[in-house]
Write a structure and sequence with these properties.
The chain is an alpha/beta fold. Helix 1 crosses helix 8 and helix 2 runs antiparallel to helix 7. The longest helix is centred in the last third of the chain and has 23 residues. The structure holds S-adenosylmethionine.
Length: 249
């Protein structure tokens, strides 16, 4: 099979690898203006608790340089800057309309001087080696065509002593809870997407993509394989989401 015809998944569909990034961009361009409200509604606000847990574990420090990849509308960067107001955050995302929404929010919160907004692909970062103290990716890496390439780019741009933290949906070890969660995800979230964002297909993709993502242990191995030391994870809400942490030593 030539590299042009290599296949990958887009939710439960099989697609050409070369088309996936454009399809993912289509999803987030479509939902950008309703992204934040949909997050609150479909998670009952719990995504805020998960993002705050990420900050608790990261413990942002003064003057740190954060690269927030797949940063979307800036939720992670905003939280980081709230805890370390002298830090600097670069929100990096491949969907310009998500960044545009975030920029509007940053102006409203008057923190725009501590932020950069850069459009591009996590698999090919336009930054020098060893240039950030912290790399975060929240609910982004499962959308990347080759997550291992994103992790190796994370390792490259972090300085020695720098930290990676990934927040992502994961797998619930308890089968009856997984059953209930599947019922909710597949039956409620896409129709909710239709009502709020006028787009059920994008939310169908989002719930399918969660099921395709590696479980906690497999992803931990990927983090270690990318070169990170002391790789660990913490389940959130019994494994509905998970934080993975690693250090570039
Ligand atoms: C679910 S949103 C997460 C936004 C934000 N980090 C949050 O936690 O609310 C996923 C984001 O990942 C971005 N994304 C997906 N694949 C990407 C890639 N290969 N490179 C950069 N950004 C990507 C999308 O454009 C989208 O804004």
């Amino acid at each position: 099979m030539t590299s042009q015809n290599k296949k990958t998944h887009f939710g439960f569909k099989e697609v050409n690898e070369k088309d996936k990034a454009q399809m993912v961009r289509g999803v987030f361009s479509s939902v950008a203006s309703k992204y934040d409200v949909m997050n609150d509604v479909m998670s009952f606000g719990i995504h805020r608790i998960w993002k705050n847990s990420m900050m608790d574990w990261l413990s942002p420090q003064p003057n740190q340089k954060l690269l927030d990849v797949a940063g979307g509308t800036g939720d992670i960067s905003f939280r980081f800057l709230k805890r370390a107001p002298t830090a600097h955050a670069t929100v990096f995302d491949m969907t310009q309309s998500m960044l545009d929404e975030g920029q509007l929010r940053s102006e409203a919160e008057k923190i725009e001087n501590h932020l950069d907004w850069v459009c591009g692909d996590a698999m090919c970062l336009p930054f020098k080696d060893n240039s950030f103290d912290v790399y975060t990716i929240s609910f982004g890496i499962r959308n990347v065509t080759h997550p291992e390439k994103a992790l190796s780019e994370a390792f490259r741009v972090l300085r020695p002593g720098g930290r990676l933290m990934v927040l992502e949906f994961s797998q619930i070890p308890n089968p009856s809870m997984q059953w209930a969660y599947d019922k909710y995800s597949f039956n409620i979230i896409p129709p909710m997407g239709k009502i709020i964002a006028n787009d059920s297909e994008s939310y169908q993709y989002l719930v399918e993509s969660i099921r395709k993502f590696p479980n906690q242990e497999k992803f931990l191995e990927m983090v270690s394989n990318a070169g990170f030391s002391n790789a660990k994870y913490r389940n959130l809400t019994m494994g509905v989401a998970c934080l993975h942490s690693g250090w570039k030593i």
